Amino acid sequence: MENFVTGILINGLLIGTLYAIIALGYTMVYGVLQLINFAHSEVFLTGGVVAFEIFRVLSPAPGAEPGTGMNPYLVFAVALVTAIVVCGALNIVIERLAYRPLRNAPKLVPLISAIGVSLILQDVIKLLEGFQGRFQLAVNVPGAFTRTVFTVADTNVKGIDLTLLIVAAVMLFGLNRLVNHSRVGRAIRAVAQDRVTAGLMGIDSNRMISLTFLIGGALGGVGGVLFALKFPNLDPYSGTIPGIKAFSAAVLGGIGSIPGAVLGGLVLGIIENFLGSLSGLVFIFPKLAFLGAIKAEYKDVGAFIALIVILIFKPSGLLGRNATEKV
Amino acid sequence: MTASLLRPKKAGPDAPDRTLWLVAYTLLTGLLLFWGSGRLDPGTKFNSVVLSFVFAAFLGSLLLAYQWRANGAVKVLVGVFVLIFVVPDIGRGNGSFFDLAIQMCIFAALALGLNIVVGQAGLLDLGYVAFFAVGAYLWGIFGSGQFQGIVKSDLPFVPLGVGDWLIPLLLTLAGVAGYLWMKAIDRAHPGSLKPRGGQRAARAFSVLLIVIGVVGILVLVATLINAAITSHYNGQPAALSALASGINPNFFWLFIILAVAVAAIAGVLIGLPVLKLKGDYLAIVTLGLGEVIRVFANNLTKYTSGPQGISGVTTAPVSLLDKLAGALGFPPEQFKLFFLYFLVLLVIGVVITVNVRLSRSNIGRAWVAIREDEIAAQAMGVPLVRTKIMAFATGASFAGVMGVIFAAKQQFISPESFTFFQSISVLTMVILGGMGNIAGVILGAAVVTLLNLSILTALSETLQALPNFNSNLDPAKYNRLIFGAILVLMMLFRPEGLLPSARQKIMMHENDDTDPALDSLNDDGAIGGALGTGAPGMPDVTSPGQATSAENTPIDRTGGRQ
């Protein structure tokens, strides 16, 4: 029983960290523009695709002798930096082309545009997949990432899991410095609070919005690389569901709030893992046979229901501030 | 003529009479279509891409009949000529056009349903296809061998004990009691504008309890019915074997009606908890719920066969129409299409009528009012929740009916047909045509369906025939790209759609004159943003009636009472 709970907590924590990183991209953009950036799920997937390509190019060929080729950690670092650059740039371009012209349109207009961008990116990735072959890392993932480092309560913690935690911690620390303790961060927060007044105070709101998209895209890129290493089998549509869940995590924590996104991601990851392993409880409590009918696939259902319940009872999220609408 | 095609605008009373043009256009494109499909001279046959465009141009005569000022009787004649005579006749020669015409009507009805939700009431529903799935599985399960498989299995759990019913009943009762209690408190302090936070949360919690309880009761009732049917058939092997291809196909008619009710109930059940959310939150939650329905369809293997899908779905036998089709020279394998085509025409006629009548009724005006400004609408006494639920249920019921027909037409349904992308396709139709405008939405559905099912596939066939063609460039594979591009470009350049309603057009261009100036100022770094948009403050998640904070917000008085 204890092992069962620990397993849920550890796995939930790991997947939750991933959601948290992706959720940051949603929450920052939403904080500034009040727009659900649907394309973010594909932006982070692009990070994964970039990682695959880097690993494909830089890793030793499958038949090569062990020990030859580039150091896997170096390859990982190259992949991370490339993904940050590509995804950040992609996000800026998307904002410039598809959202900025619609800044003053009714609210649903940029949202639909975002959905359109998301569809376009899916097929661009599909086109790439057509030419490059399926994005499967199985052969190319360096052993260092797939090896089990240690085992806690029957749960194997792999190299990628530790990397995930370390990278996430570094990024969150950096983001916190940037947003809360720098001039630029203050400008972004000012734009998020009131674009017009921020403009009157001499802040170039368009540039700050671009910067927000850059940061969101870069975080998405990192999330994509880590996602690709953890789930080394991507297809053009595998960004959608994690994307929705990451957005749910952002809402759960209180949209617009950076610590909220992290907390939301972790909570959602644990909830989801709990629901996914409910059928496992049958072995512990044979009386609860009906739990066996709950398949692991239903964990997605749980995530959405959690989102709805949160939105109904505490729409401002766990760490969000209450807001009133003034007429 | 070209000018009016490029800038479509319904002709006013002083527009020139174009009766002759209309007749000439219809006859000319009709002739071209007959010629191109090899009906006049079997030797000539257009390339399938060209033929698709000719078919589109021919259907365009319906649009012209709608747009142009012409003799009313001639307009009706053109409609009858196109829909009743030419399309079935072309379909006789080339079955794919028959199929295409039916699909167009199905999607037009779906788009009209979504138009009520998105276009009229302004609620962005990204999981609309869930209701389509409800209708399709409703008939798919009963109208195929699937039903035999369900009742043949062992006797399921029979919920006859009091204990089985106790929990959902208690939940419902507790919910109702809590709701009434909160209402009583509300009534006892009528003057208080400040809703006590706990009171509102308690009311929301009561509603949740009721929903959970009712769902539980529904599940139990369904299990009981399932058990009753199973035990009924267990003793009768003859009756059981009669179910090999589903229940009596004449029940199809009943299921069309039933689908309206079931889909509407699904709409209310899904709508109740989520309709308090606003704009983009509603979008993401409906998206999630659409996925939930797909997950269930994928995993409730006993009922839906999971990912393999249900095959062999039947239709009602209509011997009279079959005889007619036979007399007209249709091959027997097309009898079904012939019947479904006319059925679908009839249904879409009903759907359009309902749509038009609703949009001109009180409820239609209430939808527009909450779309334009929820707070103002509420202040004028429009019951928010009830009006939104009406929109959700009406839109859902259209999708439900079309789901039944879709299952009958495809003879096969699987969760693949009910993905998020399908919802987006229907949304693309609504947006391309023009949100809120019935003719526009039908146009959008026709264009998107033609593009997706006819032009793209024809193009890919033609390209595949080329030597050295790289199949990775097959355009039919990239319909998402095309739909996405349509969505983005429409939003950027013509957000009101091809055939906009007058109101949408004004709304979408409200800010046009003022914004460039402010934006240019903004680029200089002097003044940021446009004043017209209002201050983007903290996120506002819920409707004003259910505002997040306990302060300064009026309680939802109207919504609760109506």
Q: What does it look like?
A:
- The complex is a heterodimer of chains A (327) and B (562).
- Chain A has 327 residues and is mainly α.
- Chain A has a single domain (2-62, 74-313), classed as ABC transporter involved in vitamin B12 uptake, BtuC.
- Helix content of chain A is 69%, strand content 4%.
- Chain A has helices at residues 2-33, 40-58, 72-99, 108-132, 143-146, 159-180, 183-193, 195-200, 205-230, 240-253, 258-276, 281-284, 299-313; strands spanning 135-136, 148-152, 155-158, 233-234.
- In chain A, the strands form 2 sheets. Chain A has a two-stranded antiparallel sheet with strand order 1-4.
- In chain A, helix 1 packs antiparallel against helix 11 (258-276) and helix 2 crosses helix 9.
- The mean pLDDT of chain A is 81.
- By secondary structure, chain B is mainly alpha-helical.
- Chain B has a domain at 159-245.
- Chain B is 69% helix and 1% strand.
- Chain B contains 24 helices and 2 strands.
- Chain B has a two-stranded antiparallel sheet.
- In chain B, helix 2 (19-36) runs parallel beside helix 4 (72-93) and helix 3 runs antiparallel to helix 20.
- Chain B is globular and about 75 Å long.
- The two termini of chain B are 50 Å apart.
- The model of chain B is unreliable at 1-7 and 514-562 (pLDDT under 50).
- Chains A and B meet through helix 1, helix 4, helix 7, helix 8 and helix 10 of A and helix 9, helix 12, helix 19, helix 21 and helix 23 of B.
Helicity range of chain B:
55-70%
Q: Which architecture of chain A per CATH? A: Orthogonal Bundle
Helix-strand sequence of chain B: HHHHHHHHHHHHHEHHHHHEHHHHHH
Classified by CATH, the class of chain A is Mainly Alpha
The N- and C-terminal alpha carbons of chain A lie at a distance of 53 Å
